[in-house]
Amino acid sequence: MLAPLPSGLLATVESHLTALGTSFGEWVGYSLLAAYIMLWVWAGMVWAWRALRKSWTDRDGASRGEAARHKPTGDSSGLKPSDSVETLPKEVRSPASPRAPVAELRVWETVDALVHDHQPEMIAISLQSGSNGNCFYVQSNGTGVLVDAGISGHQAQQRLARFGIDIRSVRGVLISHEHRDHVECAGIYHRKFGLPVFMTRRTLIAAKKLVRLGPFRDVQFFHPGEKLEIGDLVIETLPTPHDVVEGVAFVISNGKKRLGVLTDLGHPFEQLGAVLRSLDAVFLESNYDPDMLRRGHYPPDLKARIAGPRGHLSNRESAELLSLVGAGRLRWACLAHLSGENNDPGLALATHRRVVPPSLLIAVASRHEALGLLEV
Ligand SMILES: [Zn+2]
Ligand SMILES: [Zn+2]
After folding, report:
1. What is the pLDDT of residue 243?
2. What is the secondary structure of 240-274 as a DSSP string?
3. Distance 240 CA to ligand 1 centre (A)
4. Is residue 69 scored above 50 in pLDDT?
5. CA of 40 relative to ligand 1 center, distance in Å
6. Could you tell me if 123 and 376 are in contact, meaning their C-beta atoms sit under 8 angstroms apart?
7. Dist. CA 61 → ligand 1 center (Å)
8. Ion ligand 1: residues, CB < 5 A
């Protein structure tokens, strides 16, 4: 049982409050109101901090619980850790605006402009790529497919229309894995434009736990490693060591040309070199600059996850892979899935240009808009 307050103390407090023109009851009321407001302010700050942490995580992948593993090999590209924008050759410095597309190869404005010039075997467009949302378009002999659905239905429709492509003509949407930046708008593409969606069954289950996909009339399920046929296109699905239930990357072929859409790769796993050597062109993940990531403001566990064996490929890892592949069949590489916080298009290009043969042309996909139409 609590001891009662000494009557002398209570009387002294009351006399002071009376002197201030406030009764004891009013004082208690104001105190409770102040405490109530402070509680809500505190709750708001906690909510905002959690939302910020979640947005960091969503932009760059899934659970940080699997983050703590480090890559077995570290940086083996031969590039010095001190490489920075300041030390780069002038011609490959970062563009004035980080939003500006970067490309060494010819990009076409519309399908008609390209077809007017010559008949292409295969065309490809990065409608957007980055840890904020991914969507690629690939077309051959009139069969068009989308890889991933990380931008809104409106954006996908508008950006395709700019090239003279009707989104309703797309024959399928291929989903690489359940992270938000790849799957978020798959349901909208399916319901609004009637597009068939292809993904693994486990990816669908996992995606439904992470994002609000809405209902699907049907989904074309495949197993990682399986080949899909959509019109004239054959699509190989390559299992990836990314931190998801059943991640895949894609190689899309029409019998003559082979294009890779290789993002969210975890680390440079063994088969990647052979896959790259078999391609005519590739969208290849080049997610972060190791120095920018190390110096950046991400929480340590998220940094470890991104750089870990089930996270993302760095500029150096991507550059080293392409330098090993060399100038064989591969004609161009478009660097993709750049981080907004831990990378820069000019720096990504420069890191590659240092080690990749000059005959292999490099472009950098934009995080904010379509890059332009590329011929495979
Ligand atoms: Zn991912
Ligand atoms: Zn991603």
Report:
1. 95
2. --SSSSS-EEEEEE-SS-EEEEE---BS--TTHHH
3. 10
4. no
5. 35
6. yes
7. 5
8. 61, 179, 264
The tokens for 12 are: 């002294």
Q: How far is the CA of 196 from the centre of ligand 1 (A)?
A: 22
What does the pLDDT read at residue 154? Answer: 97
Residue 231: partners with Cβ closer than 8 Å, 6 or more residues away: 141, 142, 143, 171
Coil vs helix vs strand at 229? strand
Name the 3-class secondary structure at 356: coil
Centroid of ligand 2 to alpha carbon of 180 (angstroms):
8
Question: Tokens in use for 346?
Answer: 């000019």
The C-alpha atoms of residue 305 and residue 73 are separated, in whole angstroms, by: 15
For ligand 2, the distance from its centroid to the CA atom of residue 234, given in whole angstroms, is 23
What CA–CA distance (Å, rounded) separates 52 from 340?
A: 15
Mean pLDDT, rounded, for 56-65? 40
Q: How far is the CA of 277 from the centre of ligand 1 (A)?
A: 24
Which H or E run contains 123?
Answer: strand 123-128
Region 129-139: mean pLDDT is 96
Report phi then psi at 89, rounded to 5: -60, 150
- CA of residue 338 to ligand 1 center, whole Å: 12
Q: Is the pLDDT of residue 99 over 70?
A: no
Distance 179 CA to ligand 2 centre (A): 6
Q: How far is the CA of 320 from the centre of ligand 2 (A)?
A: 21
Contact 285, 312 (CB under 8 A): yes
Name residue, tokens 């990504």: 348
Average pLDDT over residues 6-20: 64
CA–CA distance, 58 with 40 (Å, rounded to integer): 26
Confidence of residue 71 (pLDDT cuts 50, 70, 90): very low
Q: How far is the CA of 64 from the centre of ligand 1 (A)?
A: 12
Q: 225 C-alpha vs ligand 2 centroid, how far in Å?
A: 20
Query: Which of 42-46, 151-155, 268-272 shows the lowest per-residue confidence on average (mean pLDDT)?
Result: 42-46
User: Average pLDDT in the 124-143 region?
Assistant: 96
Tokens 């690489």 belong to 176
DSSP H or E run through 333? strand 332-336
Ligand 2 centroid to residue 310 C-alpha, Å:
12
Residue with tokens 């105190």: 31
